[in-house]
């Protein structure tokens, strides 16, 4: 067993000395690295699908009009679409449609799975995530219709949703510091996914080839889980043993404590009570994510500057990449600073959404450079809200409730994202009708 880890997720009294030298420090850093890579691989497909949203929809529009070429698939011409008379350069379908396909399956999983997923071994869940992510890249790559592209995005959503609630639950069996590693890794997924997609397509690769190259990422998820993590109370094969599911490894003592109500599986009433207690964390997180995804999938595709050196599709990709850089830096900040009052971040994010909504409507911003600065700030707020929410849930939740709480709270950001997608579609239609 890793000497730096206790089963309840708290730091062992000997952690300080173990981290100075010897195998304790090695296993500690190994687990931090493992959760960082799991966060990176888990969110990668999700991020890539959002970065590719504009290209996915443009590709299908091209299929429906003329025979596509690599150039028409990859780039849009600066200026208004020839297919509409709007003052905005609009796709017929909002990128929020891709967002909804990317988030609704995740939301369904996060709302329902915490009530039964504990009966499914973690290793099997990981294999499902790997398979779903790989299928998503393949389906979108070879898509010939909008519905087929959205089906591929749905597979990416299933992988990300199942992975997020599973890995957040898994953190409770390790030292609490792995939450910071996970958060930083998910931020890294944003940077890596958006940056690599933007860079590869900018270099001349078609979106199809770019997505096929990214099939290596699901393989790294499997490697990270099965070969890098050092599990407490797990066999070397990665299969769970009974101590992982109990607070006390002594079964007889565990039964006695269960009778006293201190251990054993949570019943439905207890889970509902935990959900009520989580609202103080979940609501601010949902508000932050509603505001930022309202910006990302509802407003950014309409913030097009014809005189800028990037085309419309390129501007959209690099908007997403800039946002992900902000998210990465703030999700990695837990090792330096912690913010308990997440509602402040929610309020600031709503101000951002209001400002950019006005910018779209009145078109008063003079340059895309200003938009890039606002988007970077937006990413900082969103990433800080995410990682601090789960840090304080892990810190303030009882040992017995922690695994369920970490899995359930992950629905907060998905609720906000789903609501933003529903709001962004009529917004897109309204602006494009002007």
UniProtKB/TrEMBL annotation:
Residues 61-87, 242-261 are annotated as: Disordered. One of its GO terms (cellular component) is late endosome. GO terms for biological process: amino acid transport; endocytosis; establishment of localization in cell; lysosome organization; membrane organization; negative regulation of apoptotic process; regulation of intracellular pH; regulation of protein metabolic process. Residues 62-72 have a biased composition (Low complexity). InterPro entries: Battenin_disease_Cln3, Battenin_disease_Cln3_subgr, MFS_trans_sf. It is found in: Late endosome; Lysosome membrane. The chain crosses the membrane at residues 35-53, 96-117, 124-147, 153-174, 186-205, 211-229, 278-296, 316-335, 342-362, 368-393. Keywords: Endosome, Glycoprotein, Lipoprotein, Lysosome, Membrane, Methylation, Phosphoprotein, Prenylation, Transmembrane, Transmembrane helix, Transport. Gene3D superfamilies: MFS general substrate transporter like domains (1.20.1250.20). Signal peptide: none annotated. Residues 73-87 have a biased composition (Polar residues). Pfam families: CLN3 (PF02487). It is a multi-pass membrane protein. The keyword Hydrolase does not apply. Belongs to the battenin family. This is Battenin.
């Amino acid at each position: 067993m890793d000497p730096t880890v206790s089963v309840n997720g708290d730091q062992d009294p000997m952690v300080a000395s173990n981290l100075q030298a010897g195998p304790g420090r090695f296993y500690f850093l190994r687990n931090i690295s493992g959760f960082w890579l799991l966060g990176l691989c888990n969110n990668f497909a999700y991020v890539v699908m959002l970065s590719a949203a504009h290209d996915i929809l443009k590709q299908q529009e091209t299929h429906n009009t003329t025979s596509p070429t690599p150039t028409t698939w990859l780039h849009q011409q600066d200026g208004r679409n020839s297919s509409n008379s709007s003052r905005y350069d609009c796709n017929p379908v909002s990128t929020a449609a891709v967002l909804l396909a990317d988030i609704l399956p995740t939301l369904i999983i996060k709302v329902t799975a915490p009530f039964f997923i504990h009966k499914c071994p973690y290793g099997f869940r990981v294999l499902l995530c790997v398979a779903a992510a790989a299928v998503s890249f393949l389906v979108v790559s070879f898509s010939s219709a909008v519905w087929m592209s959205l089906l591929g995005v749905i597979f990416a959503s299933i992988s990300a949703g199942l992975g997020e609630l599973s890995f957040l639950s898994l953190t409770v069996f390790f030292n609490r510091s792995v939450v910071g590693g996970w958060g930083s890794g998910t931020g890294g997924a944003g940077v890596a996914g958006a940056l690599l997609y933007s860079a590869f397509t900018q270099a001349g690769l078609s979106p199809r080839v770019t997505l096929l190259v990214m099939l290596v990422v699901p393989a790294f998820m499997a490697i990270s889980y099965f070969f890098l993590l050092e599990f407490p109370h797990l066999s070397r094969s990665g299969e769970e043993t009974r101590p992982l599911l109990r607070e006390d490894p002594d079964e007889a003592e565990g039964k006695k404590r269960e009778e006293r109500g201190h251990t054993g599986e949570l019943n439905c009433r207890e889970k509902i009570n935990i959900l009520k207690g989580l609202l103080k964390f979940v609501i601010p997180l949902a508000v932050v994510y509603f505001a930022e995804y309202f910006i990302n999938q509802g407003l950014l595709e309409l913030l097009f500057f014809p005189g800028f050196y990037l085309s419309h599709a390129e501007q959209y990709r690099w908007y997403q990449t800039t946002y992900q850089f902000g998210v990465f830096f703030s999700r990695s900040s837990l090792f330096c600073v912690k913010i308990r009052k997440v509602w402040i971040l929610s309020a600031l994010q709503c101000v951002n959404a209001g400002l950019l909504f006005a910018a779209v409507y009145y078109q008063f911003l003079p340059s895309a450079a200003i938009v890039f600065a606002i988007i970077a700030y937006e990413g900082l707020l969103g990433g800080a809200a995410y990682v601090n929410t789960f840090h304080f849930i892990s810190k303030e939740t009882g040992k017995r409730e922690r695994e369920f709480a970490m899995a359930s709270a992950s629905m907060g950001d998905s609720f906000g994202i789903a609501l933003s997608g529903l709001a962004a579609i009529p917004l897109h239609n309204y602006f494009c009708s002007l």
